[in-house]
Write a structure and sequence with these properties.
single chain, 327 residues, two-stranded antiparallel ribbon, 40% helix, globular
Length: 327
Amino acid sequence: MAEKPNPKHFDAVRKDIVKLLHQPEYDDGSAGPVLVRLAWHSSGTYDEETDTGGSNGAGMRYEAEGGDPANAGLQHARVFLEAVKAKHPWITYADLWTLAGVVAIHEMGGPDIEWKGGRTDYVDDSKLPPRGRLPDGAQGSDHLRHVFGRMGFSDQEIVALSGAHNLGRCHSDRSGFHGAWVHNPTRFSNQYFRLLGSLQWSKKKLPNGVEQFMHYDEDMDTELMMLPTDMALQSDPHFSPWVKKYADDKEAFFRDFAAAFAKLLELGIQRDADGNITNVDNEKGGYHAAPKKSRIPGLPNKTSDDSVDVSEAEPLAKENKAFRARL
């Protein structure tokens, strides 16, 4: 499909994304949180000064970006979405990944987030951003302002986007951290802020040497966690008022999160008055959708535009046996 598809095309994709969210054998029974993280990380590489990175191009298809340790575990999200790509081969991965995040947030009880299509897929890995642009949960306030400030976000937007930690959990074999932030990690809410500001958090060193913060809830017999970057929001004098604001006002959080997340997905994208993307890659190649990955686990990637030596399905085929995720 050389031209930008119309809204009806995307509506069909939205419906199929909803159908795959229920994954009983995956984390907490839902693919939703990891799809949100995919949309986040595929967009959060943007650098305002150099105008590089961002969601256009779907650079995570290549090892240089997909293999970044900060993206560990996101191969699960990408594989989940292959079923949708197979049914709608016209859609670009760049549009599919960002749309999936928006749909997942809505289906998990979050706000409606404005989303515009038209992103293209890079034809090679020559324009990928360098590694190291994504947040490191082991750091503090200065690191958050450096990473998010590079993308053009304010303190208020940093705190609002951090509210995505209402969803999902950390895995020691991916980020090094372990556990969930909230009691119901598949329901979008402001509980993250309420717990961050109201509970007592103690530092804990995991067996792998990584330090995080924990709170043991005796009533629910549950251990919750926070990252050092989460604790920085509570202790920093400019971040903390927003933590309190969002803990007290769910509607304000939903409104500000929706605005910040929509901004995140559009970073680096230029549009004309009609909403058409005018980035050079889009003008030269139109709406270029990369081919779907091979359905055969382990088939060499020479058959696709992914420069990783083998298909992502091969390592996942064995790992996913534990929870029978849909390959």
